[in-house]
Amino acid sequence: FQQRLVFAAPAGSPQTFYMSQPGGYYNFNVTNPTQADDSITGTIVSNQLNTIKSIVPMPSGLIMLSSRQAWQISGGSAGSAVSPIDVTSQPQAYNGSSDVPPIVANYDILYVQAKGSIVRDLSYDFYKNIYTGTDISVLSSHLFFGYSITEWAFAEEPFKIVWAVRNDGTLLSLTFLKEQEIQGWSHSDTTGLFKSVASVTETVTEGAVDAVYFVVERTVNGNTVKYIERMADRFLASGVAYAWCVDAGLRYD
């Protein structure tokens, strides 16, 4: 962030963060008297323990998602650089975050709330001058009640879908396009359990896509096995007769 390497929440100091010197990513030296290009050590001060979970750099500052609320670390005024002389931490949304890393979709931060069963977005409100957001899982709460999200990945192209693995092995998907006010949840079942998910940018015949890979646990011939499986591309250039919509399969020519 602003040419500084940032670490946070070491064992025993869950509210503390460290920033290196600008341009010297492994230089955490300080001087006496303090100079603007010294490294920075800061601690979030609140009326309750805020264990830092994730850090996201945004244009207005460094957003730290903690177990209790979101914080913005900045130089104190718009466009100013952080330094040991000018560094402030301001509370933002009072909703805690889980250990699942957040997803940045354009200018929105998507994160799983502290209890693991609510998904929220966080974006900057120019009128209120604060980062705030909403519960974007409330209209599909039946998919989350009694469950938690363990992993997720964002496949931006071509359909802007967040793929989330639920703790019971079910796969959830969120189509998210904030600027068009489009967001909708669905779920996918398979003969097995989804365990992990990742998104990798690949070049296919139709162009560049964010291919989605899963670790799926299946029972084959009485044995429990785990496969790495790729979601088939949803391009049907030759018509629906050539659609590849199966739980798991290999194609031979």
Give an account of the 3D structure.
The chain has 253 residues and is mainly beta. The protein is built from no helices and 18 strands. A four-stranded antiparallel beta sheet has the order 4-5-6-7, with no helix packed on it. Strands 8-9-10-11 form a four-stranded antiparallel beta sheet, with no helix packed on it. Strands 12-13-14-15 form a four-stranded antiparallel beta sheet, with no helix packed on it. A hairpin with a 6-residue loop joins strand 9 and strand 10. The termini are far apart.
Write the layout of secondary structure elements.
Blueprint: E1 6-8, E2 16-19, E3 40-43, E4 52-58, E5 61-66, E6 70-74, E7 88-91, E8 103-105, E9 108-112, E10 119-125, E11 130-132, E12 149-155, E13 161-166, E14 171-177, E15 182-188, E16 193-204, E17 207-220, E18 223-230
Antiparallel strand pairs: 1-2, 2-3, 4-5, 5-6, 6-7, 8-9, 9-10, 10-11, 12-13, 13-14, 14-15, 16-17, 17-18
List keywords for this structure.
4-stranded antiparallel sheet, mainly beta, 253 residues
Whole-angstrom Rg:
21 Å
Strand order of the largest sheet: 4-5-6-7
Report on the biggest sheet. 4 strands, antiparallel
Broad structural category: mainly beta
Q: How many helices does DSSP assign?
A: 0
- Tell the overall outline: elongated
The proportion of strand residues reads: 35-45%
How many β-strand stretches? 18
Mean pLDDT, all residues: 90
Report helical residue fraction: under 10%
Report the end-to-end length measured between terminal Cα atoms.
50 Å
Question: Which stretches are poorly predicted, pLDDT < 50 over at least 5 residues?
Answer: none
> Could you state the order of secondary-structure elements as H and E?
EEEEEEEEEEEEEEEEEE
